[in-house]
Amino acid sequence: MANHIVERVTERIAPVIEDPFVLVDVEYEKKGGDYILSILVDKPGGITVDDTAELTDIISPLLDTIEPDPFPQQYLLEVSSPGLERPLKTAASLAQAVGSYINVSLYEPIDKVKHFEGDLLAFDGQVLTLMFMDKGQEKTVDIPYQTVAKARLAVKF
Description:
The protein is of the alpha+beta class.
């Protein structure tokens, strides 16, 4: 059900999010007792509070025009920046992240490992090449794109 809502909302709002803004992600989840629809938007230089208010004023009325209403109950609308650990949900976002430090979770383990964190050295649309530290040693792994469950930018400590 949440996927259906995300798809319907994305279809409805994507056309109105115009340059310099970029729609990064749409999430619908229950947090505590509330259902939250999160619209993550960015622009070069980052999002301001005024930007989120302006985008909320554009997006909120559009959500009421989706027929049939995909929301089974009341929800809170949150328009915000993706932050430092933004999700990398598309091949295009991964391609833009080459050279960045990322976190990747896999559907299927590689050498018994399902989570990697390291520098994305390359992505050709099919395979991610990641350099990571393993017991103090730099190692490189090739990860087939279809095995990636989740990927996001990460903060290196």
